[in-house]
Write a structure and sequence with these properties.
- A hairpin with a 4-residue loop joins strand 24 (299-302) and strand 25 (307-315).
- The longest helix is centred in the C-terminal third of the chain and has 14 residues, at 513-526.
- By secondary structure, this protein is mainly β.
- The protein has 4 helices and 42 strands.
- The protein has 4 domains: 8-114, Spermadhesin, CUB domain (Jelly Rolls); 125-235, Jelly Rolls (Sandwich); 244-317 and 326-348, Zona pellucida, ZP-N domain (Immunoglobulin-like), CATH 2.60.40.3210; 364-485 and 496-514, Zona pellucida, ZP-C domain (Immunoglobulin-like), CATH 2.60.40.4100.
- Strands 21, 24, 25, 27, 28 and 29 form a 6-stranded mixed sheet that branches. A 6-stranded mixed sheet has the order 31-39-38-33-34-35.
- The termini are far apart.
Length: 575
């Protein structure tokens, strides 16, 4: 085959190409032959630069003599198949482009001309029913050259297919790039690739649904006896049982799997692991994973309107049966949103990925502190303050995820705990609306600000404070938290990641404290019972004394007893 340079014009009836390219390549191969035949091209091995995208690195195949012809298909780093493409005429072009990453790319490509519909092309077929057998052309004699056979297997609904190759002998090479059998988990070669096999083996495969596709592709070098295969069916696992649950909280993720459900998948608790294999379950009557949100390999993603935490339980089965990788995993996803409802959802995609999804809420609280040290919270309620006294407020996010940021978006005061139409803005959309408000820089899982006791306290006996809190990924430079104050004109294009509100109060003026205590004292006195209540009456004398700017309320309650000749007074209670 040699190592062709960057591109070539090819006219042979068949040819194999071993291609090696480096960075910044842009190479075109044109296949054309004056014949009344079409071209089949097989990309049996391709290795692009790691994590490359289709936009920067790919193989594009065109149905004609140039790259201006119609696009037949594209091969990229994440292509999950062995691409086989056919032209509609006697010409075909493919273009390989690579990005600037320094890496040696390797490709193995072979093509051949053939006549569609000819007798030599008749192989493969449709297989239905709960079980069956099939074999390669000429088995057990050597299979023909340049064959491309496709078998489509369709079993009864709600079943899966177990495929076993009883005898298997194909040409062996390192990457199975010459002669190979490919098995796909679905109705066509566009389904996910379960595996590609060559050489001598007895492979077995298991589908995730009732359809399976098997391909045999051969070149023109060595031929062997091929294969003989049989398939059978088994019922698909039923839906997840009620005692299979996912619970999300601000601190942790808890996954409970029933043993009967795992047994229906063919797995026991000994085969389970999370993204981080060191995180093991606790096995009781069920299998339980419980771990902090930001641990055990959990993947966090900022969705713009919410934050999701995803982890995967791998079901690493014993034995040699090959199954689609995605069908041997249970994905658990917690979505932290501002919806109060926690809803458990079970979904299955093509009977392949078992998914557990649940909603959760971050646990957020707000408290007043005695000073800007934020070390001593105010423990009593109501919180009595002086007019124009500086108040220190802190919002705390209670979460085990250290990479979260708290942002105070809006804070509103109201004399009504339900926050009706009568409100006063301290902070709005991250902007200070009251001249006395000072917001402190973000500090861990805390948001802090201070302000002076406001005018509402002059007119209303109690005031409540409600703050809207935004939670963001602290590593994001474009999040709502990173944008700070947003004007009304820009607010609509600045969606938050996760938002909730918290309320503290009531706040009251200290001048009302004496009246409140007096009311309480009178209530206690009136509750006292005496044998002859008719003989007594009460007088309350209140003295207000201003001493050194300290307001002192003195309350004296005198009890007098009516007797012959006048009244005798007795000091009953003073405070």
């Amino acid at each position: 085959t040699g190592v062709p340079r960057c591109g070539a014009a090819l006219h042979e009836p068949n040819k194999a190409l071993r291609i090696e390219l480096n960075a910044n390549a842009n190479c075109t191969w044109q296949i054309q032959r004056n014949a009344n035949q079409t071209i089949r091209i097989v990309f049996s091995h391709f290795k692009f630069a790691p994590s490359s995208s289709c936009e920067t690195e790919s193989i594009k195949v065109f149905d004609g003599a140039s790259t201006a012809s119609a696009l037949l298909g594209q091969v990229c780093d994440d292509t999950d198949a062995v691409p086989v493409l056919e032209s509609s005429s006697d010409s075909l072009t493919f273009l390989i482009t690579t990005n600037s990453v320094p890496f040696t790319r390797n490709f193995f490509v072979y093509y051949y001309f053939f006549s569609p519909g000819s007798r030599t092309e008749n192989c493969g077929g449709e297989l239905t029913g709960p079980n069956g057998t099939f074999s390669s052309p000429n088995y057990p004699a050597p299979y023909p050259q340049f064959k491309y056979c496709v078998w489509h297997i369709q079993a009864p609904k709600n079943s899966k297919i177990n495929l076993k190759f009883q005898d298997f002998f194909l040409e062996l090479d390192r990457n199975c790039q010459l002669d190979f059998t490919a098995v796909y988990d679905g109705a066509s070669t566009a389904s996910g690739l379960l595996g590609k096999v060559c050489g001598r083996a007895q492979p077995t495969f298991e589908s995730s649904s009732n359809v399976l596709t098997v391909v045999l592709s051969t070149d023109d070098t060595n031929s062997y006896r091929g294969f003989s295969a049989q398939y059978s069916t088994a019922p698909l696992p039923g839906p997840m049982e009620p005692n299979t649950t996912l619970t999300c909280s601000s601190d942790s993720m808890r996954i409970v799997l029933s043993k009967s459900y795992l047994a229906s998948l063919g797995f026991g608790e000994a085969h389970l692991q999370l993204n981080d294999p060191s995180c093991r379950p606790v096995v009781t009557d069920s299998v339980i994973f419980s771990f902090p949100l930001a641990s055990c390999g959990t993947i966090k993603k900022d969705e713009g309107h919410s934050i999701t935490y995803t982890n995967t339980i791998s079901l690493a089965a014993a034995g040699s049966t090959i199954t689609r990788q995605r069908s041997t995993e249970i994905t658990a996803r917690c979505t932290m949103s501002n919806n109060e409802t926690l809803e458990l959802i079970y979904t299955t995609t093509n009977n392949a990925i078992q998914q557990l999804a649940a909603g959760g809420r971050y646990n957020v609280s707000m408290a007043f502190y005695e000073s800007d040290l934020f070390s001593k919270p105010v423990q009593y309620s109501p919180y009595y303050v002086d007019l124009n006294q500086t108040l220190f407020a802190e919002v705390t996010l209670h979460s085990t995820d250290p990479n979260l940021q708290v942002f105070i978006d809006t804070c509103t005061a109201s004399p009504q705990p339900g926050f009706g139409s009568l409100t006063y803005d301290l902070i709005r959309s991250g902007c200070n609306k009251d001249d006395t408000v000072v917001t402190y820089p973000a500090f861990g899982n805390h948001g802090r600000f201070k302000f002076r006791a406001f005018r509402f306290l002059r007119s209303f006996p109690s005031v409540y404070l409600q703050c809207d809190i935004v939670i963001c990924d602290s590593n994001s430079t474009s999040s709502r938290c990173a944008r700070g104050c947003i004007s009304r004109q820009k607010r609509a294009i600045s969606p938050y990641t996760w938002k909730t509100n918290t309320v503290v109060g009531p706040i009251r003026l200290k001048r009302d404290l004496g009246a409140a205590e007096l009311s309480e004292s009178l209530t206690e006195v009136e509750a006292e019972k005496t044998p002859n209540l008719q003989q007594y009456s009460f007088h309350t004398l209140a003295f207000v004394v201003l001493v050194s700017n300290i307001l002192i309320v003195v309350v004296v309650i005198l009890k007098h007893h009516k007797h012959q000749g006048g009244y005798r007074y007795q000091n009953v209670q003073s405070s």
